[in-house]
């Protein structure tokens, strides 16, 4: 079972879009996929057609997993149209209070890992909030790998060092299996000069990390770049994946290719871009 955190402390870089559509693509390929919404904004939950304000959802969500000790398997909901292959642990806005409520709880960083003990799937994908707080920390302690969605902007590079430091500290103190497996460029515009410069800097950095103890020592830049595509922005408002909303769009093509690449990586066959 591969347990992947989609993590970047910056917002608006494509974490939720990638979690939803990568998960849908893997499920379409016949894999059993569990998605976990750890963002109090509950955008992943909405993207998958589940109303985070509905009474049925309020009774079973990631907030209650962390604060009431409900096993994660008990809050999983089937995503419509996937015949049980795609399930989601939904979020609600109450999740924002979890960090305060759990401040005095012993072992609060490992709660998700403990509550997820009964989960069985080929892939677990976690949509992390755009922060380095307790919710993201729980995801990193549970995960075995991190995929970093990134925009090809200069400012995006400035936060990478802090992100790598965070992953390194978690690996050293709480989760020695954790590593960064890939960098995914989202909202990609190949014609922009800055895009090529930023992509080149990231590839150079990863090359320098090879053979070291750096958490990104084995990371790759995915060959697939998720292009800027209006259909990807529209799909969440309809509660659908890009494959259901616009199956012939560039977004569907990109996430289909990414799913194949992620699966290839799991077999040890990924080649660096």
Question: Explain this structure to me?
Answer:
By secondary structure, this protein is α/β, with parallel strands linked by helices. The protein has a single domain, classed as Rossmann fold. The protein has 13 helices and eight strands. The chain has an eight-stranded mixed sheet with strand order 3-4-2-5-1-6-7-8, sandwiched between helices. Strand 3 and strand 4 form a beta hairpin. Helix 1 crosses helix 13. The C terminus is likely disordered.
How is the topology of this model organized?
Layout: E1 2-6, H1 15-28, E2 33-37, H2 43-47, H3 55-58, H4 62-68, E3 77-78, E4 86-89, H5 98-101, H6 111-115, E5 123-127, H7 134-142, E6 145-151, H8 154-158, H9 160-173, E7 179-186, H10 193-209, E8 220-221, H11 230-234, H12 242-245, H13 250-266
Parallel strand pairs: 1-5, 1-6, 2-4, 2-5, 6-7, 7-8
Antiparallel strand pairs: 3-4
Helix pairs in contact: 1-13
Q: Top keywords for this entry?
A:
273 residues, 14% strand, Rossmann fold, 8 strands, alpha/beta, 40% helix
């Amino acid at each position: 079972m591969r347990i992947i955190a989609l993590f970047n402390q910056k917002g608006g870089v494509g974490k939720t879009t990638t979690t939803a559509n990568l998960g849908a693509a893997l499920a379409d390929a016949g894999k059993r996929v569990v998605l976990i919404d750890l963002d109090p904004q509950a955008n992943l939950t909405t993207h998958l057609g589940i109303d985070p304000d509905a009474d049925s959802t309020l009774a079973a969500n990631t907030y209650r997993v962390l604060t009431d000790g409900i096993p994660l398997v008990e809050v999983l909901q089937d995503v419509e149209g996937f015949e049980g292959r795609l399930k989601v642990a939904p979020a609600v806005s109450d999740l924002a209070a979890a960090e305060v409520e759990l401040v005095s709880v012993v072992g609060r960083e490992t709660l998700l890992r403990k509550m997820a003990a009964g989960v069985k799937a080929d892939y677990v994908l976690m949509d992390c909030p755009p922060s380095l707080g307790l919710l993201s920390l729980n995801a990193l302690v549970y995960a075995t790998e991190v995929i970093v969605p990134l925009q090809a902007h200069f400012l995006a590079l400035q936060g990478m060092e802090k992100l790598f430091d965070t992953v390194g500290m978690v690996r050293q103190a709480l989760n020695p299996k954790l590593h960064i497996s890939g960098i995914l460029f989202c909202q990609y515009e190949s014609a922009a000069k800055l895009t090529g410069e930023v992509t080149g800097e990231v590839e150079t950095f990863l090359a320098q990390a090879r053979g070291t103890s750096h958490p990104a020592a084995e990371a790759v830049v995915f060959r697939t770049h998720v292009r800027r595509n209006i259909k990807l922005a529209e799909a969440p408002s309809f509660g659908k994946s890009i494959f259901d909303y616009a199956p012939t769009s560039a977004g569907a093509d990109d996430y289909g290719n990414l799913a194949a690449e992620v699966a290839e990586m799991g077999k040890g066959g990924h080649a660096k871009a």
